[in-house]
Specification:
Elements lengths: L8 E5 L4 H12 L3 E6 L4 H11 L3 E6 L5 H15 L4 E4 L15 H28 L3 E6 L3 H4 L5 H24 L3 E6 L13 H7 L8 H10 L9 H46 L1
Helix pairs in contact: 3-4, 4-6
Length: about 280
Protein backbone atom coordinates (compact mmCIF):
# COMPACT_ATOMS: atom_id res chain seq x y z
CA UNK A 1 0.00 0.00 0.00
CA UNK A 2 3.00 2.32 0.44
CA UNK A 3 3.71 4.98 -2.17
CA UNK A 4 0.16 5.50 -3.42
CA UNK A 5 0.76 9.21 -3.97
CA UNK A 6 4.51 9.03 -4.59
CA UNK A 7 5.78 12.21 -6.24
CA UNK A 8 2.45 14.04 -5.94
CA UNK A 9 2.04 17.52 -4.51
CA UNK A 10 -0.87 17.85 -2.09
CA UNK A 11 -2.42 20.88 -0.39
CA UNK A 12 -4.49 20.32 2.77
CA UNK A 13 -6.38 23.18 4.43
CA UNK A 14 -7.03 22.98 8.15
CA UNK A 15 -4.03 20.66 8.22
CA UNK A 16 -2.60 21.47 11.63
CA UNK A 17 -4.96 19.35 13.73
CA UNK A 18 -7.73 16.77 13.72
CA UNK A 19 -8.70 15.12 10.44
CA UNK A 20 -6.48 17.51 8.49
CA UNK A 21 -3.41 16.55 10.52
CA UNK A 22 -4.13 12.84 9.93
CA UNK A 23 -4.49 13.47 6.18
CA UNK A 24 -1.20 15.38 6.05
CA UNK A 25 0.62 12.59 7.90
CA UNK A 26 -0.89 9.89 5.67
CA UNK A 27 -0.02 11.71 2.45
CA UNK A 28 3.55 12.22 3.66
CA UNK A 29 3.89 8.52 4.58
CA UNK A 30 2.59 7.58 1.13
CA UNK A 31 5.27 9.65 -0.60
CA UNK A 32 3.57 12.97 -1.35
CA UNK A 33 4.98 16.43 -0.81
CA UNK A 34 2.41 18.07 1.45
CA UNK A 35 1.54 21.73 1.99
CA UNK A 36 -0.43 22.01 5.23
CA UNK A 37 -2.25 25.31 5.74
CA UNK A 38 -4.03 26.50 8.86
CA UNK A 39 -4.56 29.51 11.09
CA UNK A 40 -2.79 27.63 13.90
CA UNK A 41 0.75 29.00 13.71
CA UNK A 42 1.91 26.88 16.65
CA UNK A 43 0.84 23.36 15.72
CA UNK A 44 1.36 23.80 11.97
CA UNK A 45 5.15 24.25 12.01
CA UNK A 46 5.49 21.49 14.62
CA UNK A 47 3.62 19.10 12.33
CA UNK A 48 5.80 19.96 9.33
CA UNK A 49 8.98 19.57 11.40
CA UNK A 50 7.81 16.19 12.76
CA UNK A 51 7.11 14.89 9.26
CA UNK A 52 10.43 16.18 7.92
CA UNK A 53 12.38 14.57 10.77
CA UNK A 54 10.63 11.27 9.97
CA UNK A 55 11.85 11.48 6.38
CA UNK A 56 8.72 12.92 4.78
CA UNK A 57 8.23 16.10 2.80
CA UNK A 58 5.97 18.77 4.25
CA UNK A 59 5.80 22.52 4.74
CA UNK A 60 3.38 24.72 6.64
CA UNK A 61 1.80 27.93 5.39
CA UNK A 62 -0.34 30.11 7.61
CA UNK A 63 -3.72 30.67 5.94
CA UNK A 64 -7.17 32.01 6.68
CA UNK A 65 -9.25 30.20 4.06
CA UNK A 66 -11.81 33.04 3.99
CA UNK A 67 -9.22 35.48 2.60
CA UNK A 68 -9.05 35.52 -1.20
CA UNK A 69 -5.85 37.53 -1.11
CA UNK A 70 -4.18 34.83 0.97
CA UNK A 71 -5.42 32.13 -1.40
CA UNK A 72 -3.73 33.93 -4.29
CA UNK A 73 -0.49 34.08 -2.28
CA UNK A 74 -0.63 30.42 -1.20
CA UNK A 75 -1.28 29.08 -4.72
CA UNK A 76 1.48 31.33 -6.11
CA UNK A 77 3.87 29.93 -3.48
CA UNK A 78 2.95 26.35 -4.39
CA UNK A 79 3.47 27.09 -8.10
CA UNK A 80 6.82 28.76 -7.41
CA UNK A 81 8.13 25.93 -5.21
CA UNK A 82 6.78 22.88 -7.02
CA UNK A 83 5.34 24.01 -10.36
CA UNK A 84 2.31 21.78 -9.93
CA UNK A 85 -0.57 20.74 -7.68
CA UNK A 86 -1.99 17.22 -7.89
CA UNK A 87 -4.24 16.96 -4.82
CA UNK A 88 -6.27 19.56 -2.96
CA UNK A 89 -8.17 18.67 0.22
CA UNK A 90 -10.59 21.38 1.37
CA UNK A 91 -10.72 20.31 4.99
CA UNK A 92 -10.80 23.56 7.00
CA UNK A 93 -14.09 24.02 8.85
CA UNK A 94 -15.69 25.12 12.09
CA UNK A 95 -18.69 23.92 14.08
CA UNK A 96 -20.97 26.34 15.92
CA UNK A 97 -23.72 24.73 17.96
CA UNK A 98 -26.76 26.50 19.42
CA UNK A 99 -29.82 25.16 21.29
CA UNK A 100 -32.08 26.46 18.51
CA UNK A 101 -31.63 28.34 15.27
CA UNK A 102 -33.45 31.29 16.88
CA UNK A 103 -30.51 31.58 19.29
CA UNK A 104 -27.91 31.88 16.51
CA UNK A 105 -26.59 35.34 15.76
CA UNK A 106 -26.25 36.55 12.20
CA UNK A 107 -22.54 37.03 12.89
CA UNK A 108 -22.11 33.35 13.80
CA UNK A 109 -24.17 32.26 10.78
CA UNK A 110 -21.96 34.33 8.48
CA UNK A 111 -18.76 33.19 10.18
CA UNK A 112 -19.66 29.54 9.72
CA UNK A 113 -20.63 30.08 6.09
CA UNK A 114 -17.43 32.03 5.46
CA UNK A 115 -15.18 29.20 6.67
CA UNK A 116 -17.18 26.15 5.62
CA UNK A 117 -18.50 27.37 2.25
CA UNK A 118 -16.58 30.45 1.13
CA UNK A 119 -13.31 28.75 2.02
CA UNK A 120 -14.18 25.72 -0.10
CA UNK A 121 -15.29 27.91 -3.01
CA UNK A 122 -12.02 29.88 -2.89
CA UNK A 123 -9.95 26.69 -2.69
CA UNK A 124 -11.45 25.38 -5.92
CA UNK A 125 -11.43 28.73 -7.70
CA UNK A 126 -7.71 29.27 -7.13
CA UNK A 127 -6.35 25.69 -7.12
CA UNK A 128 -8.20 24.39 -10.19
CA UNK A 129 -6.20 26.40 -12.77
CA UNK A 130 -2.87 25.16 -11.35
CA UNK A 131 -4.12 21.56 -11.31
CA UNK A 132 -5.29 21.83 -14.91
CA UNK A 133 -1.81 22.89 -16.02
CA UNK A 134 -0.46 19.44 -15.16
CA UNK A 135 -3.30 17.54 -16.80
CA UNK A 136 -5.36 16.28 -13.90
CA UNK A 137 -5.59 15.61 -10.21
CA UNK A 138 -7.96 15.12 -7.34
CA UNK A 139 -10.10 17.52 -5.31
CA UNK A 140 -11.55 16.30 -2.02
CA UNK A 141 -14.04 18.42 -0.08
CA UNK A 142 -14.73 17.57 3.54
CA UNK A 143 -18.48 17.51 4.13
CA UNK A 144 -20.20 15.65 6.98
CA UNK A 145 -22.93 13.18 7.80
CA UNK A 146 -24.75 16.31 8.99
CA UNK A 147 -24.68 17.46 5.36
CA UNK A 148 -26.65 14.36 4.37
CA UNK A 149 -29.18 14.07 7.20
CA UNK A 150 -29.05 17.25 9.28
CA UNK A 151 -28.75 17.36 13.04
CA UNK A 152 -30.61 19.14 15.84
CA UNK A 153 -28.65 22.06 17.24
CA UNK A 154 -26.36 22.00 14.21
CA UNK A 155 -28.69 23.41 11.57
CA UNK A 156 -26.25 26.07 10.35
CA UNK A 157 -23.38 23.59 10.29
CA UNK A 158 -25.57 21.09 8.42
CA UNK A 159 -26.53 23.76 5.89
CA UNK A 160 -22.88 24.50 5.12
CA UNK A 161 -21.94 20.83 4.82
CA UNK A 162 -24.95 20.11 2.62
CA UNK A 163 -23.79 23.01 0.46
CA UNK A 164 -20.30 21.48 0.23
CA UNK A 165 -21.80 18.19 -0.95
CA UNK A 166 -23.74 19.76 -3.82
CA UNK A 167 -20.87 22.11 -4.66
CA UNK A 168 -18.65 19.04 -5.06
CA UNK A 169 -21.19 17.37 -7.34
CA UNK A 170 -21.44 20.46 -9.50
CA UNK A 171 -17.67 20.92 -9.78
CA UNK A 172 -17.31 17.22 -10.63
CA UNK A 173 -19.74 17.65 -13.53
CA UNK A 174 -17.96 20.82 -14.63
CA UNK A 175 -14.58 19.06 -14.66
CA UNK A 176 -16.05 16.06 -16.48
CA UNK A 177 -17.50 18.34 -19.14
CA UNK A 178 -14.14 20.08 -19.51
CA UNK A 179 -12.33 16.74 -19.77
CA UNK A 180 -9.52 18.07 -17.60
CA UNK A 181 -8.82 14.78 -15.82
CA UNK A 182 -9.67 16.13 -12.37
CA UNK A 183 -11.68 13.95 -10.00
CA UNK A 184 -13.91 15.64 -7.42
CA UNK A 185 -15.33 13.95 -4.34
CA UNK A 186 -16.92 14.91 -1.04
CA UNK A 187 -16.31 12.93 2.16
CA UNK A 188 -18.97 12.62 4.88
CA UNK A 189 -17.56 11.56 8.27
CA UNK A 190 -19.66 11.28 11.39
CA UNK A 191 -18.68 12.77 14.74
CA UNK A 192 -14.94 12.46 15.36
CA UNK A 193 -13.30 13.83 18.50
CA UNK A 194 -11.21 16.62 16.97
CA UNK A 195 -10.47 20.24 17.96
CA UNK A 196 -13.32 21.50 15.75
CA UNK A 197 -15.61 20.62 18.66
CA UNK A 198 -13.36 21.72 21.50
CA UNK A 199 -11.18 24.70 20.67
CA UNK A 200 -12.80 26.57 23.53
CA UNK A 201 -10.37 25.79 26.36
CA UNK A 202 -13.02 26.62 28.94
CA UNK A 203 -15.28 23.90 27.49
CA UNK A 204 -12.42 21.42 27.57
CA UNK A 205 -11.78 22.29 31.19
CA UNK A 206 -15.44 21.69 32.03
CA UNK A 207 -15.47 18.37 30.21
CA UNK A 208 -12.21 17.24 31.81
CA UNK A 209 -12.36 18.54 35.39
CA UNK A 210 -9.32 18.40 37.67
CA UNK A 211 -9.20 15.00 39.31
CA UNK A 212 -6.91 15.87 42.23
CA UNK A 213 -9.83 16.74 44.49
CA UNK A 214 -12.02 13.63 44.67
CA UNK A 215 -14.07 14.64 47.68
CA UNK A 216 -17.85 14.31 47.56
CA UNK A 217 -18.25 18.06 47.94
CA UNK A 218 -15.93 18.78 45.02
CA UNK A 219 -17.74 16.26 42.82
CA UNK A 220 -21.11 17.79 43.68
CA UNK A 221 -19.78 21.29 42.95
CA UNK A 222 -18.45 20.23 39.57
CA UNK A 223 -21.70 18.49 38.71
CA UNK A 224 -23.76 21.51 39.73
CA UNK A 225 -21.52 23.85 37.74
CA UNK A 226 -21.78 21.91 34.48
CA UNK A 227 -22.54 18.26 33.74
CA UNK A 228 -19.47 17.08 31.88
CA UNK A 229 -20.62 13.78 30.39
CA UNK A 230 -21.63 14.23 26.72
CA UNK A 231 -25.38 14.23 26.28
CA UNK A 232 -26.22 14.88 29.94
CA UNK A 233 -27.18 18.51 30.26
CA UNK A 234 -24.68 20.37 28.11
CA UNK A 235 -26.47 21.76 25.06
CA UNK A 236 -23.41 21.48 22.85
CA UNK A 237 -22.87 17.84 23.72
CA UNK A 238 -26.58 17.07 23.26
CA UNK A 239 -26.19 18.25 19.66
CA UNK A 240 -23.07 16.12 19.23
CA UNK A 241 -24.84 13.11 20.74
CA UNK A 242 -27.74 13.67 18.36
CA UNK A 243 -25.39 13.54 15.39
CA UNK A 244 -23.80 10.37 16.76
CA UNK A 245 -27.26 8.81 16.91
CA UNK A 246 -27.86 9.79 13.28
CA UNK A 247 -24.58 8.14 12.32
CA UNK A 248 -25.54 4.97 14.21
CA UNK A 249 -28.97 4.80 12.57
CA UNK A 250 -27.37 5.35 9.17
CA UNK A 251 -25.02 2.40 9.75
CA UNK A 252 -27.87 0.24 11.00
CA UNK A 253 -30.02 1.03 7.94
CA UNK A 254 -27.06 0.30 5.67
CA UNK A 255 -26.51 -3.09 7.29
CA UNK A 256 -30.24 -3.84 7.06
CA UNK A 257 -30.27 -2.99 3.33
CA UNK A 258 -27.23 -5.18 2.74
CA UNK A 259 -28.79 -8.13 4.59
CA UNK A 260 -32.03 -7.69 2.65
CA UNK A 261 -30.13 -7.58 -0.64
CA UNK A 262 -28.12 -10.70 0.26
CA UNK A 263 -31.32 -12.58 1.12
CA UNK A 264 -32.99 -11.43 -2.08
CA UNK A 265 -30.06 -12.62 -4.17
CA UNK A 266 -29.91 -15.94 -2.32
CA UNK A 267 -33.62 -16.47 -2.90
CA UNK A 268 -33.19 -15.65 -6.58
CA UNK A 269 -30.34 -18.16 -6.92
CA UNK A 270 -32.40 -20.85 -5.19
CA UNK A 271 -35.34 -20.10 -7.45
CA UNK A 272 -33.21 -20.31 -10.59
CA UNK A 273 -31.66 -23.56 -9.38
CA UNK A 274 -35.10 -25.00 -8.72
CA UNK A 275 -36.36 -24.01 -12.13
CA UNK A 276 -33.29 -25.52 -13.77
CA UNK A 277 -33.80 -28.77 -11.87
CA UNK A 278 -37.43 -28.95 -12.93
CA UNK A 279 -36.50 -28.42 -16.56
CA UNK A 280 -33.76 -31.05 -16.44
CA UNK A 281 -36.15 -33.50 -14.82
Amino acid sequence: MAGQVEGKVALVTGGASGIGEAIVELFAREGATVIATDIDELRGPELADRITRAGGKAIFLEQDVTSEERWIEVVAEVAKRYGRLDIMVANAGIGISVPSIVDMTLADWRKQNAVNLDGVFLSVKHCLPLMRKTGGGSIVMMSSLAGLRGAPGLSAYSATKGGVRLFAKSIAMECAAAGDGIRVNSVHPGIIDTPIWGKDSDRRDRCRPERADRSRGARQARHAARPCRPGCGDRFWRAVSGLRCLALRHRQRTRHRRRHECRRRAAARISRAGQGGALRG
